[in-house]
Design a protein that fits this description.
By secondary structure, this protein is of the alpha+beta class. 41% of the residues lie in helices and 19% in strands. Helix 4 links the parallel strand 3 and strand 4.
């Protein structure tokens, strides 16, 4: 069975899957594109593997196919958007576009989002701001994945966040991280590949380090940088969930919980660089910064230093040229779900 697919093949499969589930055309295209772009960036934990995680939520009604988000408050540079349990990617794109618009008027723009859903890869949206000569920030909360520092019961989400800035003649500099040692999707991907995980990733139900992804999924994922990762994650929940009036902590549900509304909140914030200094000067300094990072003397065994976001840019070029290889278990799972809905298989 073929396991290497072009971006176009993956897009066509994901889009026809969502159209078969009665998702409106533009929403289906966006949802498919966010998944395939994650695969192209090398983040398969957030790629087409998740196609029917979202699909099942449409079937149960936990996520609404065609509900229109509503503006709950508008204070000029700041607004609140109610996603009304719609598609997280659709809601977040609207929030980021509007934050960019507000930043172009006020210098800074922010949209607090409530009642949204899982939006996939955060950098998909912060890069939108970088493309407009802005710095973009996006945070979200997520379902419980780790314990508070010193605990052994998961009550804190990995609560990802992203920052993106233009890189001048280089691709944007981008940070996109969860506050756990790894994103939970990487445990699901390891399970799909029947691979062990490092014992620094997760604890089992008894609070012991584990190399078994199944035990790690049932247990808790460890925070990055110990207590610091826990504290950062808690503050991202303040920005995303508490501020917006959405759910927070254990009130948030993940995309793999097919029957539960997400109750997710986000914060999209944008700074218009030109309001601070000429964009050309900023870009020139970013080029110097990137070149300085890459010119740093390297440790033994290191061939090249990369700036944040560079690896994803390179992976995108490589995977568009050579195709994306999917794990066999992922391919089997996708086609099994496609068959359930009468959708033409992948491959």
């Amino acid at each position: 069975m073929n396991d290497i697919f072009s971006a176009e093949e993956l897009l066509a499969f994901a889009e026809r899957s969502y159209r078969a589930l009665d998702v409106p055309e533009e929403s289906a295209k966006l949802l498919a594109d966010t998944l395939v772009q994650a695969d192209l960036w090398g983040h398969q934990s957030h790629g087409v593997m998740r196609t029917f995680w979202y699909g099942d939520r449409f079937v149960t009604g936990a996520m609404k196919r065609d509900v229109a988000p509503e503006w709950a408050m508008d204070a000029g540079a700041l607004a609140v958007l109610d996603g009304r349990d719609g598609i997280g990617q659709v809601i977040t794109k609207l929030a980021m576009q509007d934050a960019i618009r507000r930043a172009k008027v006020h210098g800074i723009g922010a949209v607090s989002v409530r009642n949204s859903g899982h939006f996939g890869t955060a950098m998909y949206f912060t890069r939108m701001a970088a493309a407009e000569g802005c710095i973009g920030f996006l945070s979200t909360n997520a379902s419980p994945a780790m314990a508070p520092w010193g605990g052994r019961e998961k009550t804190v989400g990995n609560n990802p966040w992203s920052i993106a800035a233009p890189g001048g003649r280089y691709a944007p500099m981008v940070l996109d991280i969860a506050n756990t040692a790894v994103a939970r999707g990487k445990l699901y991907l390891a399970r799909q590949r029947s691979e062990p995980i490092p014992e620094t990733w997760a604890m089992d139900l008894d609070g012991n380090p584990t190399t078994d992804p199944v035990a790690g999924i049932a247990g808790t994922i460890l925070p990055m940088a110990g207590h610091k990762g826990y504290a950062i994650s808690a503050m991202m929940d303040v920005l995303s969930g508490v501020l917006s009036g959405s759910g927070f902590g254990p009130q948030v549900n993940g995309p793999y919980q097919a029957e539960e509304r997400s109750n997710v909140g986000h914060l999209a914030m944008v700074i218009d660089i030109a309001k601070c200094r000429p964009l050309a000067e900023f870009n020139a300094d970013m080029e110097k910064m990137i070149e300085g990072l890459k010119a740093t003397p390297r440790a033994e065994g290191v061939d090249e230093i990369y700036y944040p976001g560079e690896l994803e840019t390179r992976a995108d070029v490589e995977n568009r040229r050579n195709g994306v290889r999917l794990p066999q278990d992922t391919l089997v799972d996708l086609n099994r779900n496609a068959a359930k809905h009468g959708i033409a298989p992948l491959g």
